[in-house]
Design brief:
The structure is a single chain. By secondary structure, the chain is an alpha+beta fold. Helices cover about 20% and strands about 40% of the residues. The chain contains two helices and eleven strands; from the N terminus they run E-E-E-E-E-E-H-E-E-E-E-E-H. The relative contact order is 0.14.
Length: about 120
């Protein structure tokens, strides 16, 4: 990917041959996939971006530097939209994401340590 542009609620990823528009409010999570990044939307749609999860993390950090962050990094593999966190199961190493409206439920396998930290974050607030 060559150019990154940001607006309040949307990221645009452009290459020579394509453009992907990512509305942040509809993103369930970003997932690292080598030098690529998969974007999973809450409706079940998926887009693959030619950028790393580290670049996505920086874009989101820049976007939310003055606001409460909409996304949280969980382990090495995921950046998750906080509004869709539904269930944390440390023993089964599962994180369930849902919007509580659509029938789509996303189940992520996450390390126990990362889930403990996430649960602690919510328990302290």
């Amino acid at each position: 990917m060559r150019h990154f542009k940001t607006s309040d609620t949307t990221l645009f990823f452009n290459t020579r041959d394509e453009m992907v528009k990512v509305k942040l409010a509809t993103v369930a999570y970003f997932e690292a996939d080598s030098n690529y990044c998969n974007v999973m939307f809450i409706n079940g749609a998926k887009a693959t971006l030619l950028t790393s999860l580290v670049n996505i993390e920086q874009l989101l950090s820049d976007r939310f530097k003055d606001d409460a962050p909409m996304f949280i990094r969980i382990g090495k593999r995921y950046i998750v939209n906080r509004q869709f966190i539904f269930h944390i199961n440390i023993l089964k190493q599962k994180l369930i994401l849902s919007d509580n409206i659509s029938p789509v439920i996303m189940e992520l396998t996450v390390s126990k340590e990362a889930l403990k930290n996430l649960k602690q974050l919510y328990s302290n607030n």
